[in-house]
From TrEMBL:
InterPro entries: 6-blade_b-propeller_TolB-like, SGL, SMP-30. GO terms for molecular function: calcium ion binding; gluconolactonase activity. The active site is at 232 (proton donor/acceptor). It comes from Fistulifera solaris (Oleaginous diatom). Keywords: Metal-binding, Zinc. This is SMP-30/Gluconolactonase/LRE-like region domain-containing protein. Residues 32-273 form the SMP-30/Gluconolactonase/LRE-like region domain. A divalent metal cation binds at residues 34, 181, 232. GO terms for biological process: L-ascorbic acid biosynthetic process. Pfam families: SGL (PF08450). Residues 114-135 are annotated as: Disordered.
Length: 297
């Protein structure tokens, strides 16, 4: 399979067009794919399959073929962040189902103890850490919980950073959460976007990049209840628009919304293609959005 042909796209004029249909690059057969990140240093795309306890790597260095590697994990991985260190292997900051830890995927081993702080998943069971992102300054990693579908369980969003002695420490910054998603920042890092998915709403907070503190919670966007949609993961483009993966749980075709954070309006939509597998048409739901800033536009 020729990867370069799959990555070739026709530029879209976002001012004159309000939707496009995505093209399938790889049928990775994930049960719950999450945390997709493009690593520009290694020119690869990384993501996790939470339920299957697997980590995926799609290598883009050779555009003549698809190099897709899958690593088994010891437990569920909700999200992860890149590290500012040079390495021949793949060390990352992991938000496991029950805590934060530095872990080398390719060497298949932890690089230290789990972070110090309150229990991030006190109820265990189906609850776990979920969506997460590294802040633009690279000093902190944020990840929030998912209650496993039990409305009686309330989770939190945690901020994890490395202390002067190298120890990872975490603290809660948002409480009473059912399913944390859409953690990302405005282009100037002054705003943190966040969604508690069951509420169907995306909010912004004023973000203090020095202390990591939040203030001034403000409603940005509400999903249309008639579409049976909730906000999942998000990222922000160079013009400050929020790209949000829309979770519809099979109620309709999956899609990604480009949202104007000033008006809260959807200004562009990417429709996800359904996948035919073994004679059955499968409806795909996107969970997170990321961009590739390389030779691929």
């Amino acid at each position: 399979m020729n990867l370069s042909s799959l990555l070739e796209i026709t530029p879209v004029d976002l001012e004159r067009c309000d939707f496009v249909v995505a093209r399938l690059l790889l049928d990775c057969r994930c049960d719950l794919g999450e945390g997709i990140i493009y690593d520009d240093r290694k020119n690869c795309v990384l993501w996790s399959d939470i339920n299957h306890k697997r980590f995926h790597k799609l290598d883009l260095t050779d555009d003549t073929r698809v190099i897709h590697t899958i690593y088994d994990l010891p437990k569920q991985l909700g999200s992860f962040g890149l590290l500012q260190i040079e390495s021949e292997s793949l060390p990352l900051l992991f938000a496991w189902e029950d805590g934060f830890q530095l872990y080398d995927v390719e060497l298949q081993k932890p690089l230290g103890s789990e972070s110090v702080g309150e229990d991030v998943n006190p109820m265990k069971g189906g609850s776990r850490l979920n969506d997460g992102r590294v802040e633009p300054q690279g000093n902190r990693f944020l990840s929030g919980g998912h209650n496993g579908g039990d409305s009686n369980i309330k989770m939190k969003v945690f901020q994890c950073e490395q202390s002067s002695d190298g120890t990872l420490v975490h603290r809660p910054i948002i409480e009473n959460v059912s399913t944390a998603n859409s953690l990302c920042w405005s282009t100037d890092s002054s705003k943190l976007y966040f969604a508690d998915s069951p509420t169907r709403q995306i909010y912004s907070f004023d973000y203090n990049s020095t202390s990591g503190d939040l203030s001034n919670k403000t409603l940005v966007h509400t999903k249309n209840i008639d579409e049976h949609s909730v906000p999942d993961g998000s990222c922000v483009d160079s013009e400050g628009y929020v790209w949000n993966a829309v979770w519809r749980a099979g109620a309709g075709p999956g899609m990604v919304h480009r949202i104007d954070p000033q008006s809260g309006q959807v200004v562009f939509t990417v429709h996800m293609p359904d996948v035919l597998r073994r004679g059955e048409m499968l409806r795909k739901n996107p969970t997170l959005v990321d961009s590739i800033a390389s030779d691929y536009q």
